[in-house]
Structures are given as structure tokens and as C-alpha cells.
Amino acid sequence: MDLTRIAIDANGGDNAPEIVVDGCLKAIEEASDIELILFGDQEDLERRLSERTFDKKRISIIDAKEKIDNNEAPVLAIRRKKNSSIVKGMQYVKEGHAHAFVSAGSTGAVLAGGTLIVGRIKGVERPALGSLIPTAKGMMLLMDCGANAENKPSHLHQFAKMGSVYIGAFLAIDNPKVGLVNVGAEEKKGNPLYQDTHQLLKGDTSINFIGNVEGRDISTGIADVVVADGFTGNIILKHTEGLASTLMGMVKEGMTSTLISKIGALMVKGALKENLKKLDYTEYGGAPLLGLEGLVVKAHGSSNAKAFKNAILQCRTFSKEKVNDKIKQHLL
Amino acid sequence: MDLTRIAIDANGGDNAPEIVVDGCLKAIEEASDIELILFGDQEDLERRLSERTFDKKRISIIDAKEKIDNNEAPVLAIRRKKNSSIVKGMQYVKEGHAHAFVSAGSTGAVLAGGTLIVGRIKGVERPALGSLIPTAKGMMLLMDCGANAENKPSHLHQFAKMGSVYIGAFLAIDNPKVGLVNVGAEEKKGNPLYQDTHQLLKGDTSINFIGNVEGRDISTGIADVVVADGFTGNIILKHTEGLASTLMGMVKEGMTSTLISKIGALMVKGALKENLKKLDYTEYGGAPLLGLEGLVVKAHGSSNAKAFKNAILQCRTFSKEKVNDKIKQHLL
After folding, report:
1. Could you tell me which residues are beta bridge partners of residue A132?
2. Model confidence over B162-219: pLDDT tens digits?
3. Closest alpha carbon to B232 in A67, A236, A60, A225
4. What's the gap in Å between the CA of B180 and the closest CA on chain A?
5. pTM recorded for the entire structure
6. How close does chain B come to A324, measured CA to CA in Å?
7. What residue of B is the nearest CA neighbor of A135?
8. Cα(A275)–Cα(B254) distance, integer angstroms
């Protein structure tokens, strides 16, 4: 049996290390072919784990007490905090001891560490952060969601290829549909970055390019991968989260505004909750940072144990499906 | 009494001229101080209006049979179709016969005509399309929503000033809060366009700049005006529409998925509808193209009579509040 070894940042996230420990225990319970290495405060983690019942061989601890905060300058923090869980965990991946690294910590530090420590795949110009976003039909991968502040057409072309491989493996689909964010359907639409990217994608027969995707179609599920520069992608991702939360708040407020509607709300609650499950990010895991020599997954800062568990299990799929080997082949 | 004279594109939109005529009649019924001039097929419009009862002095017709379609190259169409309702209606504004022009027709043609025919206010580098977007607290103006494919910091600075004047008049608020779309709160975040724009806005004491607005805060109502380049703004606007529609579809589907939930749905329906009213674009009117010597309002292509009426009434506020005079003062 092939084991997937996953390094875990036990210091990262709003609710670390509690939910990290819980997520890890859930993950090894669900998947028998993974081994986890926790990076954090050894004493504290040993104490927490000693209170739990599980196969002790499958979780080990490496001491890494330092924590990188969200408000620290990422590159500087990566260079200085040699004993941080992010630096030590990523070095562990770099040295080949683990296949993947999962963190719910500082996005900036995870991105900086990914490039500076784990390192890019040869030929990858810029790593990119992909996020799974729910659509009317299921889900799609949006990338880049903010690993880059500025991009060139060749970067976006690589995002399309890497995203295509990733979502193909993740959703187990052949020939995933790739779309390019733009302000109109015609190929001349948008600014030069998007006009030139359109031509690169159109000319690449190794991907299934379906053309431009306008803002109004992002959520319809028209494409399996939607490509954007890091600035635009980040705004789309975060606006999706913010708007969904605003709208659901309005629905809830409306449903509980009168006595009759309150009774009705109790009756629709179960069915509604079930149908809106696909909006729940905790179901999907984290955001993969693609283009590195090893997988780095950024879990949501406010992840609960289930979300963290799913981020771990995502690494297993990545490793089993040999996503990085396929990305390398695809980029040649 | 000051009359606001408004030129109307009777050929534009999915349901023209029916909803245009209906919208005009509703508008003059609601506001006694406006006069409308319809540009379209004179014979047809005369026949339609002859069947209705209203104060005949308040609506006149100018023959302009040609129509510019959505799929025509906008600049070319504006240059060639001299008898189109858009060209003739805009010339009418340019010549000072009307204060404003409203169209539910081709966005591209309205934008091109605005600049080429109505003309920019002296000192305005680029006109911008503003859209009213519902938030958790009410509504805000997003601009530019797509009048420009590429922008410079000085453009965005002007968008902030013009948007501030417009929303102040429209919502009757003092010192509206202005935010800049960005990928993080810190002023160094984003690409050079946004970094430089941040400094311009921060240094301008004539606006109430509250800093960067991340994607997740766009819908919270944190700002009254959110400034973006035309590419980013267009994606945000259309994604907002698309996502809202997808989510509401999911809510509806969930609420009607079981027998119990169907009964509950009937009970929450009224209250929910009332609370979600603010999402209804027909309540707000159209998108103003700001920075021109006269107001041009782009109504939604699928506008119904109520939406079209509101787009007309919006022009009245614009004229009464002397928005253009204030923009001119503000830009000095």
C-alpha cells in the first residue's frame, strides 16, 4: 500500500491547535493510507494526543514552536522564523520526507514559503492558488486566487494547464472545460493581458478551452476551471464568500420576520440546509498552491475540524493521482 | 417649476418599444416635472400612444427608425447609423434640448455614443459607468463597471470624485464613504495601479476615503462608493448578478424539495419576497455614465416598465441635484 505522508501546521489558523488535532484524528480514521507529521509545540501536542485513542504509529510530532502571524511581512517571516511550523514543515516536504503540507495559517507566509522553501517545478513561471467554488452544477476551480499581484499571459496559460490537470484528478473528469474570465464573449474583449491570454489558450490543443467566461457565468458551472490573474481572482473568490454570506443572511432575516414565516422557516429548514450544503467550504478542503515540487494546501483560517480533515484528504488524492507528474508532463 | 427634459431610446432593449412606452407613461404619472422625448419609429409610437390616456404635452416623438444591435461594433455603428435612436437622442442632449438620455439598448453603443456625441466634461479623462449594487445595509455605487478596458490611477481618482458626488445626491447623504477595491487592507497591497490609486485617494481631502475594500466586504455596505478599474468592476457587477441568481435558485430548489418544505415555502414566501426586494434591480433604475456633458443612463437590457420608469426618474434627481455642476466644481 502506498502511504501518503502529510506535514501539518499545528500552529496555523484561528482555532489551532485544537481543530488541527481533531482534523488529523478524523483524517486517519477515514483514510488508512496516510501518515501525518505535526509541526508545533511538541509538549502541548503530546499532551493533547495522549488523551486520545488512535494508532500511534500514524501521527508523529516535530517540535516547531514559532508561529507566523497574519500581520507579519511574509517573506521576512519565512527568512527569520526558522523554527516556525511553516518553515520546518515545508523544509520537510522539500527534503522529500512528506508529499504535502497543509496549513490554516497566514496565506502570505504559506505562499512565500511555497516558492522560497518547497520551490517551483522547473518550467513553472509562477505558482498559483486554486480555490474550489460551488456552482449551480457542482463546483469549479478558480485560479489564481491571489498568489500573484500581477501576471503575464504566459502565467495565465500555465494556470490553465495546471488547473486542468488538478480538477481532472480531483473531480475524476476527462477533458475538463477551461474558461477565461473576461468582460465579454468575443476574443478581442478585455485588456491586452486577457486578449493575449485568449490567443494562447485558443492555440493550445492540450486543454479544452471553451472561451471567455463573463462575470454572470462564473457561478453557472459553465467551466470546470476558470482562469484569472491573481488580483481579479482574489476579488472574485472573496466577493463570492462575502455575497453568499450577505444573501443567506437576508434569506434568514426574511424567513424569520413574521410569525407565519417563522413557522414556515422551521418546515423548510432541513431541506434548505441539505440543498445549500454545497455552499459549505468545509466540505471541500483547502486551496491548493499549484506549481510547486510538492503539494501545499492552504486551509481556511477559520477551518473547523471537518474542513481541516478534508484539506488533508485532498492531499491524498493529489498524491495518488500523481497530479504533479501530470503537471510536469503537461508543461513540457 | 423646473422641468427636466429627458430623451428616450424607444428602440433599445429586449422588450422595446412596449416597455419603453409603458415606462414613460408611468414616469410622467409619478413625476409632474418631467417631459419626455421619444426617439424611435414615429408612426408606430404615435399609434401606441394614441391608444393611451395621458397629458399629450408631456411626451413628444422624434422619428429615428434605425436600431443599433448588441452585436454591432459600437464605434462604427455610432458613426454610420445617423438615424438611429441612440445617435439622434444623444445629439439632442448634446445640443442642449434635453438634460439626459436613457437607453436599454447596446451597452457598447451607449458608451461609445456618450463619449463621441454627448462628449466629456472638460478635464474628465475617462467617463465611467456606475452601477447601484445592493448591500447588507442598503446600496452602493460600483464604478467603473465596464466603460473602460484599461485604466490609469488618475482615472480611478476621478471615478472616486464623480462617484462620490453622484451617490451623495442620489442617496441624499453627506460625505459618502469611498473605498478602493483591493486584495488586502494594507496600502501597499495589489498591483501598481491600485497602489498608486490608493495614494491619490488618501491624499485627496475632498473625498471621504476609507481605504481598501476587500472582495469579502463589497456586499457588506462598508462603503457608499467602491472604485475599480473597468475590467475588474465589470466582473464584480456581473458576478454579483450571476451569483445572486444561482443562490436564489438553490434556495428555491431546496425549499420545494420535500412535501413539508413545500408547505413551509408557502408560509415564508411573502416575508422572504419582501426582504429580498432590495436585490431587485428594477427598483433602482439604470447605470449612469458619469463624466459627460449631460446624463446618459444605461437601463438593463431586460428592463421591465418599472425598471425603465426608475431609470427615467433617476435623471430627474441628477438634474435637480445639479450633479454635473457639482462634478465640475469637484474636478477643478
Report:
1. A141
2. 999 999 998 999 999 999 999 999 999 999 999 999 999 999 999 999 999 999 999 9
3. A236
4. 12
5. 0.93
6. 28
7. B246
8. 5
In sequence order, which ranges of B66-225 are alpha helices (DSSP H)? 74-80, 85-94, 107-113, 153-171, 192-202
What does the block give as the cell for A266? 422551521
**What backbone phi and psi angles, to 5 degrees, belong to B32?**
-85, -10
Give the residue ranges of chain B where pLDDT is below 70: 1
Could you tell me which residues are beta bridge partners of residue B295? Answer: B100
Task: Measure in Å the smallest separation between the Cα of A234 and chain B Cα atoms.
Answer: 6
Phi, psi angle pair for A310, to nearest 5°: -65, -30
pLDDT of residue A1: 59
Cβ-based burial of B241 (10 A; exposed 0-12, middle 13-18, buried ≥19)? middle
Other beta carbons less than 10 A from residue A98's beta carbon: 24
Distance between CA atoms of residues A193 and A82, nearest Å: 38
Task: State pLDDT tens for residues A18-27.
Answer: 999 999 999 9
Considering only the beta carbons, identify the residue of A235, A261, A274 that sits closest to B254.
A274
- pLDDT tens readout for residues A251-304: 988 888 899 989 988 898 888 888 888 777 777 789 999 999 999 999 999 899
In chain B, what residues touch A237 (CB-CB under 8 Å)? 215
Task: Judge contact between B192 and B216, C-beta under 8 A.
Answer: no
Secondary structure element (H or E) that encloses residue A169, with its range: helix A153-171
Contact state of B272 with A261 under an 8 Å Cβ cutoff: yes
- A145: its cell numbers: 486566487
**Cα(B286)–Cα(A206) distance, integer angstroms:** 43
Q: B254 is written with which cell numbers?
A: 431546496
The secondary structure of residue B298, as a DSSP letter, is: E
- Provide the chain A residues 127-146 that lie in CB contact (below 8 A) with chain B: 135-136, 146
Contact A113, A260 (CB under 8 A): no
Does the model's ipTM exceed the 0.85 cut? yes
Using one digit for the tens of pLDDT, what is the confidence trace for A6-48?
999 999 999 999 999 999 999 999 999 999 999 999 999 999 9
Which of B220, B237, B257 comes nearest A215 by C-beta? B237
CA distance A195 to A212: 10
Distance CA A237, CA A103 (A): 19
Angle formed at CA B329 by CA B326 and CA B332, multiple of 5 degrees: 150
| β A287-290/B295-298 pair status | unpaired
Which SS3 state, helix, strand or coil, does residue B332 take? Answer: coil
Residue-level pLDDT at B71: 87
Percent share of chain A, pLDDT over 70: 99
CB of A275 within 8 Å of a chain B CB? The answer is yes
Determine the pLDDT at residue B331: 82
Q: What is the pLDDT of residue A277?
A: 81
Position B280 scores a pLDDT of 76
Facing residue for A276 by CB, picked from B190, B254, B269: B254
Helices (H), B191-276: 192-202, 230-255, 259-275
State how far the Cα of A98 lies from the Cα of B321, in Å rounded to an integer. 66
Q: Which residues in chain B (184-223) have CB-CB distances under 8 A to chain A?
A: 189-192, 194, 214-220
B173 touches chain A (CB under 8 A): no
